[in-house]
Amino acid sequence: MFSSHCIVGKHYRRAAPLAAALAIAFSFASSAQAGPLPLFPFLTMPQPMPQMQAAPSAEDESTVTQLPARLKRQVVNYATHEAAGTIIIDTPNTYLYLVTGNGQAIRYGIGVGRDGFTWSGIQTISKKVEWPNWTPPAEMIARQPYLPRFMAGGPGNPLGARAMYLGGTVYRIHGTNAPETIGTHVSSGCIRLTNADVADLYSRVNVGTKVIVLSNERRADNGRSVVR
To answer: By CB neighbour count within 10 A (0-12 exposed, 13-18 middle, 19+ buried), where does 115 fall?
Structure first.
């Protein structure tokens, strides 16, 4: 005669494997709901690289504002006794010529000084800066007290993508964040180009380059286009 103790023991031994199987199945079901297990948990998956912010482009504004044909950068016939590499600013016609020699020059459309702010003379490029900061001189602040005292370089800076400083003066050849002003008399004496054009000029000249600024009465209008 078997004791009830032995009968319980038999049923327990038979039920134990079944209970273990159910526990394993329940464990897998819970894991599936929580998400798939990694095939190799000891290996870490590569993390995405952080996105790098692109440097500002000097070409961006050229897609927004289209210049009249006469103000677009072009190679022209240009008779001069000045050496190749010289910059000549034709103030009344709003052109900048970079003499290339053999009777030719690269002509750029520019913005120049407004009435009372034009000047003339000979200077040299004393410094070149990409995306320059802007610190308005004291005399400009006196005339326009609302101007910022300092503005970091960048697409919103009125000096644009490049600046070439002229001797020890306050004047520069620089880019602009207002390309629609090319071909006008608008500045306080600086010479402005589109950002694309000033970047092109910047790449062609060096510190020490001679810059001739013609007076508002003297025209250098002998430049005729030969290559667009």
So the answer is: exposed
